[in-house]
Each structure stands twice: as structure tokens, then as C-alpha cells.
Design goal:
This protein is an alpha+beta fold. It has helices spanning 8-20, 91-104, 132-143, 177-193, 217-220, 223-234, 238-241; strands spanning 24-25, 28-29, 78-87, 112-113, 117-120, 125-128, 149-160, 166-175, 206-213, 243-246, 248-253, 256-261. It has one domain: Cyclic phosphodiesterase (Cyclic Phosphodiesterase, Chain: A, Alpha-Beta Complex). Residues 1-71 are annotated as: Disordered.
């Protein structure tokens, strides 16, 4: 969803903030399934044992990130990690985004537009530094046989994160849900290998468009949501624009990005 700086704290904090948006929709939280983060039973690769951990978050100064609070305790050596499908916004999509955000701001003036767009395939989880390489290798193996596919993201929905500290406007996937679930089951398999929390049990796949601090879902649902849906439905070429072919899965861990092309 949002832009993430590549240095220090914001690297893992912003990713946490981005991923939390998957938490719940329309008030009911989707409880994450799976075990809590624990140590995977894997030896650390020899070459990584003594490596420094250059870009990990060290400070916890909330004034540097808009007063947001991280959703998991920070420790040295923890790398916030997120698996997702990146969506490259074309000019027309950004025009639609501008229309939607300016209309929604008449209901919630504090809304901020996203600068990056994606569909999440995992929660934000914490990896130890020496787990990154085997985690990525396992993802690559599981995703190697997966084919490219289309989905349609054209239903405006309001989301809150699990602890109700942020509200999001997103475009929910209305077609392609089955393939997304299949993809998530592959990613979940990797997370389970590392004793990490798997994705939400009954996920609402979506591209987040805008967000604000606090639970303002009450102001955004109802008349606002209907007006936003009307904008999407009436937007020129929206049927073409919001039919997306996914060509790769991406994993971000701290400041590192890994791409997994689909066949």
C-alpha cells in the first residue's frame, strides 16, 4: 500500500502499518490463524552467522512516524516481513484515486492517499535476520509452478486494522478470489515452516487506496461509500482499468525486496 522509506525505523514500521490494514472489514476483525512467532527449527546458514544487521529498526520514537504505534514489540535483529502482489499504478488509476480521495475527504478531511499499491498475501510478520534467506528460498520453491492470473478489484470497502488505530479505503477483489486463496495457501505453508502467523482465515483481498489515523469507519461507510462506488462504476474504462493481471509476487523484509515471477 503506502510508500516505505528504506532506512532505519521507517523500514519496518511503515511495513507494519501497511500490513495491518488487512485486519478487518466493516467492524468485524479477522483473527489471524496459526501459531505465534517462534523460532523455526532450522540451522542458520553458515555464511550469514556473523553478518551485520544494517537496516534493522533500532529506535522506537513514535514522533517520527505520525504517532503510530508498532503492532509488535521491537527487538534488534527483527525484520518486519510482508508478502504481497505489487500493483503498478498507471496514470488513469491515479486519476481515479484522486477523484475518490477528494470526494472521501469531504467526509474525513484527514485521509491520505497511498503512494504504493498492493494486495497482501501475508500479515506483517517478524523474521530473524538469518531466517530471511531460507524463508525466501522456500517461497521461491513454492511459487515456482504458479501461473499468472487476472483479478478484478472494483468494490469500494472500508477497513480498519485489528487494534482499530487506523482506517483504510480499499478496492476489494470481486473476481479472482479463488486464485488468491491458492496463492495464500502456498505462502501460509512457508509461514508455518517458520512457526509464523498465517494469513487471516476469511480474507478480504483488496488494494488500499487511502488511510487515516483512528477508527473513522462510521463516517466513511453509508453515504460516503455509495458515492465512492458510484465514482468507480462511472469512471471511464474502469472495467478495463480494474482488471489486473498479476505477474509476480514480492516479499519485503526490512529494506530488502525479493521478487518471484509467476509463469
Amino acid at each position: 500500500a503506502m510508500s516505505a522509506a528504506l532506512v532505519g525505523y521507517s523500514s519496518s514500521e511503515e511495513e507494519q502499518e501497511q500490513e495491518e490494514e488487512g485486519g478487518s472489514r466493516g467492524g468485524g476483525a479477522q483473527e489471524p490463524s496459526g501459531a505465534s512467532a517462534g523460532r523455526p527449527r532450522l540451522p542458520a546458514p553458515a555464511g550469514l552467522l556473523g553478518d551485520p544487521e544494517p537496516e534493522e529498526a533500532v529506535s522506537d520514537d513514535s514522533s517520527r512516524h505520525g504517532g503510530r504505534v508498532r503492532g509488535f514489540p521491537h527487538e534488534r535483529g527483527n525484520w518486519a516481513t510482508h508478502v504481497y502482489l505489487p500493483y503498478i499504478a498507471q496514470e488513469e488509476f491515479l486519476e481515479l484515486l484522486e477523484l475518490l480521495v477528494s470526494r472521501a475527504r469531504t467526509f474525513v478531511p484527514s485521509l491520505a492517499a497511498m503512494e504504493e499499491f498492493h494486495v497482501s498475501l501475508s500479515q506483517c510478520v517478524v523474521l530473524r535476520y538469518h531466517w530471511i534467506e531460507p524463508f525466501v528460498r522456500s517461497l521461491r520453491e513454492r511459487l515456482a509452478a504458479f501461473h499468472r492470473f487476472f483479478c478484478v478489484a472494483d468494490q469500494v470497502k472500508v477497513y480498519t486494522n485489528q487494534n482499530k488505530t487506523r482506517t483504510f479505503i480499499g478496492l476489494e477483489v470481486s473476481a479472482g478470489h479463488f486464485q488468491l486463496l491458492e496463492l495464500v495457501s502456498e505462502v501460509d505453508g512457508v509461514l508455518e515452516e517458520f512457526d509464523l502467523p498465517t494469513f487471516y482465515k476469511d480474507p478480504s483481498f483488496h488494494i488500499s487506496l487511502a488511510w487515516c489515523v483512528g477508527d473513522l469507519s462510521g463516517r466513511l461507510e453509508g453515504p460516503c461509500l455509495q458515492e465512492l462506488q458510484d465514482i468507480v462504476d462511472g469512471f471511464e474504462d474502469s472495467a478495463f482499468l480494474l482488471r489486473i493481471q498479476w505477474e509476480q509476487v514480492r516479499c519485503k523484509s526490512g529494506n530488502k525486496y525479493f521478487s518471484f515471477p509467476l509463469r
